[in-house]
Write a structure and sequence with these properties.
CATH superfamily: Glycoside hydrolase/deacetylase
Mean pLDDT: 92
Number of helices: 8
Radius of gyration: 17 Å
Helix content: 25-40%
Low-confidence stretches: 238-243
Strand content: 15-25%
Shape: globular
Structural class: alpha/beta
CATH topology: TIM Barrel
Number of strands: 9
């Protein structure tokens, strides 16, 4: 018997700006977003947390932020760097600091952990973040055997060039149809009013439109895919394990 398909739609960068907050909220209330990852260093993080306290159905994780790099003039250049990405002690202190900021803002631990531009997958950050996730007992993006990761809904190539074919209802439905059985996390980056200097700007509005397109939700229903959040998926797994 084939395992049922379950899908977590996670919005990255929540709290980075008011516009990103608006897009994430819209994609949750009127679209298919079930979870979000919070960037605790940014002024709009408090606004994002205030919303989540009123809407606990939006599962909230930690989006570790060590910097951002943009592909400009044929090379990757930093837009900002929080710390040296090669200094183990600096990374460890900063990761712990951001976890403590998350706890102060929300009053609880994150339901999942990931990072801005996937820096947690690179050495030496990987060991530090993986150990944190294991201590907390939460999934670390693209590192959990129980949760597959899909990053295909993204409007740029690896070199930061436009790749907008997937930013349509048909494109997203095609991605969803190709998902393997089991649980998959699909990341997205919704936002309204490009109000921040980032390498991923104009695509955010389009993402919101696609995530809220009724054809996408209809396709998910027709394919008998269950939309879940990190929180309710993990609670269900714990309940099964205790039986």
């Amino acid at each position: 018997m084939t395992a049922k398909k379950r899908l977590i739609i996670n919005a990255d960068d929540f709290g980075q700006s008011p516009g990103i907050n608006r897009g994430t909220i819209e994609a949750h209330e009127f679209g298919i977003v079930t979870s979000a990852s919070l960037m605790v260093r940014w002024p709009a993080a408090s606004e994002a947390v205030a919303y989540c306290k009123q809407r606990p159905d939006l599962s909230l994780g930690l989006h570790l932020d060590l910097g951002e790099w943009a592909f400009r003039e044929n090379k990757w250049t930093p837009l900002y760097e929080v710390i040296s990405s090669n200094d183990v002690s600096e990374i460890s202190r900063e990761v712990i600091r951001q976890l403590e900021m998350f706890r102060r803002l929300t009053g609880k631990d994150p339901t999942h952990i990931d990072s801005h531009q996937h820096v947690h997958l690179e050495k030496p950050a990987f060991k530090i973040t993986n150990e944190m996730a294991e201590r907390l007992g939460v999934p670390l993006r693209n590192c959990s055997a129980a949760i597959q990761y899909c990053g295909g809904f993204y409007g740029q190539t690896d070199d930061g060039l436009p790749n907008h074919e997937c930013l349509s209802a048909a494109g997203l439905i095609g991605i969803i149809k190709a998902l393997a059985p089991g649980v998959t996390e699909l990341s997205c980056h919704p936002g309204r009013d490009t109000d921040i200097d980032t390498m991923y700007r104009n695509e955010r509005d389009k993402e919101v439109d696609v995530l809220c397109d009724p054809r996408v939700r209809a396709a998910i229903n027709d394919l008998d895919i269950e939309l879940v959040s990190f929180s309710n998926y993990c609670q269900a797994e714990l309940a099964i394990a205790s039986v």
